[in-house]
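Reviewers of the previous submission asked for a worked example of the structure-prediction workflow described in the proposal, so we include one complete record here. The input consisted solely of the amino acid sequence. No template or homolog information was supplied to the procedure at any stage.
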Amino acid sequence: MLLPWAADPFTAPTDRDMLPSERREFVRTHRTCVFGYRRRSDGPAMSIVYYIPTDDDELLVSTMAGRGKARVIGRDNKVGLCVLDERWPFSYLQVYAQAALDRDRALAVDVMMAVAGRMSGRPLGEDARPSVAAMCERENRVVIRCKPYATYATPPRHLHRNDQVKKLTHWVSGTVAWDAPDPP
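From that input alone, the workflow returned the following structure tokens.
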């Protein structure tokens, strides 16, 4: 089941690393990411996309079957999604996932309906479904199912005034398994 859009996305703490449960909540309540995958000869390919989380923690990305994102999944199912916070100071969460291509047209229509709702901030009415279905058919839309297995987070650090530079701190984070429990 596709999760509804969260009007109030999770805000990353600025004084500590996110707990594993907070990392999952961050991903579930945001809507855009940089989708990245390895290319054969060059650096990684990256594009900004809307994603749709599901109740079983998959992240669904719609694309056209002829695009690189869809074509690469057959040879390399490891992808990265850098989930973006759209509020200042910017934070992000890197999600490492195994990807699979799903050619189910009904799912592609459902995902595109959900994407349109996230783009506009309001769910699309069912009266739009035939138009979205026609677009999915015309563009040969498929869905990339991304199953997260780990995350990497860096808390946002920002100067609000120049005299704060003496107090600005940074720390390192680490990769955490997607299903890791919170520490006691």
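Residues 80 and 96 are 5 Å apart (CA to CA). We consider this example representative of the routine output the project will generate in years two and three.
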